[in-house]
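User: Here's a structure from my thesis project, written as structure tokens. My advisor, Dr. K., wants to see whether a designed sequence matches the one we expressed. Can you design one independently, without my sequence as a hint?
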């Protein structure tokens, strides 16, 4: 191989041809390095399907880059000499190719970003760490936005992002006269609605090889490999997204919070795994959705709801992550210490809602937002589960999970463990919420209408027990004070029944 000027290391979640590190290089003189790594696949024990998805997408991306004229040194997991870590793999490539410089795009996770910062000293070579321009708001810009604000509310950040991108704007006003149509997005779904499935892609020869490798090497990890239908190329991910826009997006807004037994996807896009590894571009998908609205193909509440998730929530949680790391991962406002129950892995629980969410997570490496927030997250909050253990669970079980997006959602939004930096109130709810938004309770062995006793829905006593336990911490929150007052109006006997019911259920965990 001719001499190598720059060695460009592309990480597994950087599968974008326009990546800043590639834009800074030259296919004629530089070498791209990519590797499947034991360390990255097991720093948490990722779901088997997530590993297979990423390895296959990486292999296809290496092919895409070769098609664009790049030389790519690709380290398959089972290739002789695979060093197992980013630093080891770089060391081997530096010794072999003697590059003048290493170029990388900054890592999405704090853990890997720290590694990147160490490489210049480690290899005695210049290392250029370039910004990740695939995001719409750089960490420094978020820091500026946050500076001096008492509260970091997503809604205000989102409005700035709408103005900055021009998405759904009519001049300087929001389309339809309102920034946010969330109030219209609360409909429970019904089984007689037609629910399109996400496009199912057939595994090609490359994916089949990866599936066999993952089955052999990660058989002790959680999760099913089959069925495997994720897109693993840019073209297939784009086709899956376009199918979502035409088939499901019109109802995305209305049924965003709904849950239905046997319907894991409802009208959700199922694209976070593609966005987060670089197969889809966030701004491009938003422009496609805006165009569908302008063409009259989707209602405004659906287009706005979808765009808010991407330019609002997705960018906002990344901003919070880089603002608060390190240290954010050990936040624990409620001082919760209970270990994660086994049923988060086995799905063996009488609670139909939790069983459904965990079973589907095992099968698909997917659960939609309300299942994550209001079923598994809500249960953990009410039961006082250690937020750090829960964080490691979410990080490992979902195909879209990377710490920059998962941690603020878990620690901040779902567990209120940051004391209200991200969320304005804890997302704590009794069984009544789950009953309203789903059809799970009808088949559950527990009774959602009973508050206490062995037959009662565990979410009920746990909810009031959570309010009682944390009265002092939450009474000053205007959105929780009413619940504290309601609890205080229960008679002493009812309060005792709540305490006893919660305690006897928790003793079974
Ligand atoms: P849709 O519901 O169709 O939404 C469209 C897109 O909007 C998503 O693909 C995603 O890119 C974006 N989005 C929506 N909500 C959020 C949000 N709260 N934060 C960031 N982006 C959002 N999302 C991840 O991408 N990775 C994670 O590891 C992750 N962990 C989560 C953990 C918890 C406890 C909770 C409550 C939420 C988490 N989310 C995470 C956010 C959200 O649940 C997923 O983005 C969504 O379920 C992915 O499915 P979808 O593509 O069908 O999304
Ligand atoms: C998540 C992941 C997994 C499972 N495997 C790899 C891998 O083998 N090689 C790789 O380059 N990246 C992998 N990743 C993604 C990295 O962990 C990701 O680049 C970091 O999370 C970014 O900070
Ligand atoms: Fe979940 Fe309670 Fe409903 Fe059972 S009754 S499905 S535990 S909310």
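Assistant: Designed independently from the structure alone:
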């Amino acid at each position: 191989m001719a001499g190598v000027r720059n060695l460009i290391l592309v990480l597994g979640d950087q599968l974008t041809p326009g990546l800043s590190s590639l834009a800074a290089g030259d296919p004629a003189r530089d070498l791209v390095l990519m590797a499947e790594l034991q360390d990255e696949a097991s720093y948490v024990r990722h779901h088997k399907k997530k590993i297979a998805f990423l390895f296959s997408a990486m292999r296809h991306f290496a092919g895409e880059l070769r098609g664009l004229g790049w030389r790519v040194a690709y380290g398959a997991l089972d290739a002789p000499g695979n060093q197992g870590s980013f630093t080891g793999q770089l060391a081997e490539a530096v010794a072999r190719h003697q590059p003048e410089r290493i170029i990388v795009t900054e890592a999405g996770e704090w853990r890997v970003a720290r590694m990147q910062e160490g490489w210049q000293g480690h290899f005695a070579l210049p290392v250029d760490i370039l910004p990740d321009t695939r995001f719409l708001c750089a960490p420094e810009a978020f820091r500026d936005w946050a500076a001096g604000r008492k509260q970091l509310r997503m809604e205000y950040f989102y409005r700035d992002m709408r103005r900055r991108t021009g998405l759904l704007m009519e001049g300087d006003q929001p389309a339809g006269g309102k920034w946010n149509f969330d109030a219209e997005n609360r409909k429970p779904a019904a089984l007689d609605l037609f629910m399109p499935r996400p496009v199912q892609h057939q595994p090609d020869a490359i994916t089949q090889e990866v599936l066999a490798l993952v089955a052999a090497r990660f058989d002790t990890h959680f999760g099913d490999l089959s069925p495997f239908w994720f897109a693993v190329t840019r073209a297939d991910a784009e086709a899956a997204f376009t199918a979502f826009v035409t088939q499901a997006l019109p109802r995305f807004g209305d049924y965003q919070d709904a849950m239905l037994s046997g319907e894991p996807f409802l009208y959700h896009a199922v694209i976070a795994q593609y966005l987060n590894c670089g197969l889809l571009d966030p701004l491009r998908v938003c422009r496609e959705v805006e165009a569908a609205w302008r063409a009259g193909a989707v209602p405004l509440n659906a287009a706005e709801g979808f765009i808010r998730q991407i330019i609002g929530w997705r960018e906002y949680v990344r901003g919070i992550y880089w603002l608060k790391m390190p240290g954010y991962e050990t936040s624990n406002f409620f001082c919760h210490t209970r270990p994660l129950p086994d049923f988060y892995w086995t799905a063996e629980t009488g609670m139909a809602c939790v069983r459904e969410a965990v079973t589907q997570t095992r099968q698909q490496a997917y659960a939609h937002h309300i299942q994550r927030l209001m079923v598994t997250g809500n249960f953990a909050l009410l039961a006082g589960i250690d937020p750090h253990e829960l964080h490691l669970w979410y990080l490992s079980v979902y195909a879209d999970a990377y710490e920059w997006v998962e941690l603020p959602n878990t620690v901040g939004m779902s567990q209120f463990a940051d004391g209200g930096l991200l969320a304005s109130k804890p997302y704590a709810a009794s069984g009544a919420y789950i009953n309203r938004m789903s059809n799970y309770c009808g088949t559950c062995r527990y009774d959602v209408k009973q508050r206490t006793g062995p037959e009662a829905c565990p979410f009920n006593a746990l909810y009031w027990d959570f309010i009682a336990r944390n009265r002092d911490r939450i009474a000053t929150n205007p959105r929780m004070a009413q619940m504290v007052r309601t609890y205080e109006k229960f008679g002493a006997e009812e309060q005792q029944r709540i305490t006893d019911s919660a305690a006897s259920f928790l003793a079974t965990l």
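When you compare it with your expressed construct, this may help: The chain has a mean pLDDT of 96.
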